[in-house]
């Protein structure tokens, strides 16, 4: 069972590196605690889940104020705010209510728009949430 928890921790770590939210990091650490419990007591499934969840919740609750303070610190620069106003190119078409993919600089982002936008059209970034950007056609600006 410890191997399954280790795989889950690895997947959560990769997803955390893609989103940079810190929430998945705490879940990853909880899964690592479950790995240790599973290694020590392989048949204690309840304790693997319980201790893993407890660690994840405690880390989330107690580090939230620290991460908020870090983000408000002088000199902190969130890369997402730099995206707003930049030009991108649609890689996968965007339909209203569905996500497409837009390349901005060297990075690809999941994107949404209020109107359909086809492949290879130029867009401007309007806003960014954690992993999704909102775009509009570049031509709408002229």
Automatic annotation (TrEMBL):
It is found in: Membrane. GO terms for biological process: proteolysis. Residues 82-137 form the NfeD-like C-terminal domain. Gene3D superfamilies: Nucleic acid-binding proteins. The keyword Hydrolase applies. It holds the Pfam family NfeD. Its main location: membrane. It is a multi-pass membrane protein. The chain crosses the membrane at residues 12-39, 45-62. GO terms for molecular function: peptidase activity. This is Membrane protein implicated in regulation of membrane protease activity. It comes from Paenibacillus barengoltzii J12.
